Amino acid sequence: MKKLVTILILAAVFLMPSFAYANGDIRLVIDGSEMQNLSTPPIIVGERTLVPARDVFERVGGIVGWHSGHRQVSLFFGDDVIVLTIDERTAQLNGNLIQMDVPPIIYNDSTMIPLRFPAEVFGFDVDWLAEESIAIVNSPGNGNGNGNNGNGDSLGDISDIPIISLPPVEEPEIPLPPADDVLSESNKEELPWDGTADSDELPPPGAAVLQGSGALARDVSTSAIVTVAHPQTTITALRTPAETGTAAFVAVATLPISEVQYFLLPDNRLVVDIHNAVSMISGDFTATANVPVNGVRAAQFSQEPRVTRIVFEVVGAAEYSITLSADRMLLTVSFSQNRITGVFAQSDANTVSDSLFIQGDVLPAINISTEGFPHFLTINIDNADMTAVGGAFNGGNFASHFSTGQRADGSAYVRVYVHGDWPSFSTAHSDNSVALVLHRGVSGVRYDSVNRELRISRQFSMDISQVQQINEYLRLQHTFVLPPQAHVLGRGEISLLDGFVNSVSLTPDVFGNIHLTFNTARVLNFSIHEEAEYFVIRAHLPRDVSPFIVVIDPGHGGSDPGTHHNGILEKDFVLMLSHKVMQLLDADPFIQAFMTRRDDTFVSLLNRAEFANDLDADLFISVHLNAAEKSPGVINPAVHGIETWYANAESRSLANIMQRQKIQHTNAHSRGLRSGPNLVVLREANMPAVLLELGFITSPDEAARLLGTQYQWQLAHAIYRGIAEALGVA
């Protein structure tokens, strides 16, 4: 295959009229920064610049998908989807056919695509400096006078930018600024749709969350779905496995389906698009245990062209196939049930451990329950056909035997029966098998997965009021620092995998204190109390302990500095100010607040919104600074003031409150509200969300105010008071 690819590439080299290797010859500059260490340098084909798809378009906030069976690359940015086929000049833009000057190709094992066509479709400016052999790309708003972006917050010539029209509301309006002082709708920090038809939601508290290895799902479809012209159809139903009686979902159409496209996103979401189809289905659909899917959503993704989109959150390396019935009116998405072909045990006297190996056609998706404590633990295996039988641990150090079983819901299980002391356990995996290892290391500790409680035997004295807690929620860790006497518990790690707590570890520090650390699957709160025989540490969902949850999002961070003028670097300023806001929120007994970053760390835009969604937050507040900069060094120092962005009607009331509070506390110039439906941190949040622009640091006067400590606290108080008012606790 590699030889064939090489031949094709060589043919392309000799057939194209102009083909230049770019070993330092062709330079690519995006938003003022030269791209370095590309997997393959840019090349020139037919007087067009071709660039490595993933390196370049993920750099500017896009998502790049690859479908090897069809030799197609998909580019997602905002609401636009471009599908390009290797060696073909015809591309698809939101389902419509477009002709390109040159086709994408495979070169040096990289997918190389024309730069100008997708970039201009997505709203980028593309320039070519022939003498210097430099391709220059400016993302929307960065150098083209069309508003802000996430790296520079540029503003062009504002004299010809239209006024934003705001929808009518019943509450008092904050006036818009004059026409000569208004930004157009911003594409600041715009990223593509992340794979959901609407928004993400977690399973309800207590629902099983499947565990996987991080391996991606695999397409085992035996044939491609051919596109055939038909009149518009309507999708009237999505039959679930509970209805079909199989591990399959079936979309039902009133007339033959013209075209189906599907692709797997990097986060293992399978996206199925039914073209020329009106959707009568919308919202969440239930997945059962016999299907390796955590959730399913469907909606009308596009009105023009008509596209019905169904998204499956696939677990691990599950196999799937997509077929269309002969009459093209039933689209079936089937998931192969994992066949558990072997379960066997072994014991090791040297390491004093027992191991249980569970082997399947693909990697089993497991979770472990300790409900049988102290007699047995159960390994639950979702979407599995158990063909293996039980057995014994010959000379087992901790376990005597195991049994296997099948449940009516399509899941399987293995029970491991323990004798003597309850052991610690951990897990490991290979391509298609999971190993459960029972070992010594921690004693006097057991976890109750039903009540999410860790019970510690009171074999040492401890004043729980003096126990220090270290909450590193961004790392999904929470540590209790126990006194040195806790060394009797031993050291090691207990693997739990109950969907809330992945493991608990005990390690000493340099002072002899014992760090008991919870490694969690999601952000949790913890409390400690005493009982007659135990110290009890309980894990809580944040919603269970606080009436209100707020997420503060300091913009930019790490490799993304934001804008930088007049002695202010945006990423540093907004982090400092966010910490001030957190001090005020932490003192409020009714509000529990979290930050998307607590230090100079890069966090992707999607992860910021998903962090708030996972917390089931009530409000999401993103903090930023502005800049009136058309291109590097070309600024408008006269532009100044504070503005607030929102993405939807649900968030507009919050935006109005936040803008009013900021102006009241600072007496700054109000630039009013801004509608930004494509701002990903706002669009993808499931709760009211706003992006606060606290001032233009390209204005020397405003920058000087922002550097003042008193003014910073005025801003922090304004943000806090706005949050309190919006939550009704002011």
Q: Can you walk me through this structure?
A:
The N and C termini lie far apart (67 Å). It is built from eleven helices and 54 strands. Strand 8 (80-85) and strand 9 form a beta hairpin. Helix 6 (570-586) crosses helix 11 (709-727) and helix 8 packs antiparallel against helix 11 (709-727). The strands form twelve sheets. It has a six-stranded mixed β-sheet. A six-stranded mixed β-sheet has the order 48-45-49-54-52-53, sandwiched between helices. A five-stranded antiparallel β-sheet has the order 1-4-5-12-11. Helix content is 15%, strand content 39%. The longest helix is centred in the last third of the chain and has 19 residues, at 709-727. It is α+β, with helices and mostly antiparallel strands and 730 residues long.
Largest sheet: 6 strands, mixed
The structural class is alpha+beta
Q: What is the averaged pLDDT score?
A: 80
Counting H and I runs of at least 4 residues, what is the number of helices?
11
Widest sheet: strand ordering: 15-24-25-17-16-20
User: How much is the radius of gyration in Å?
Assistant: 28 Å
Q: Which of globular, elongated, flat, extended, rod-shaped describes the shape?
A: globular
Strand-residue fraction?
35-45%
DSSP, total strands: 54
Low-pLDDT parts are: 1-24, 143-214
- How many angstroms does the end-to-end distance come to? 67 Å
Helix content: 10-25%
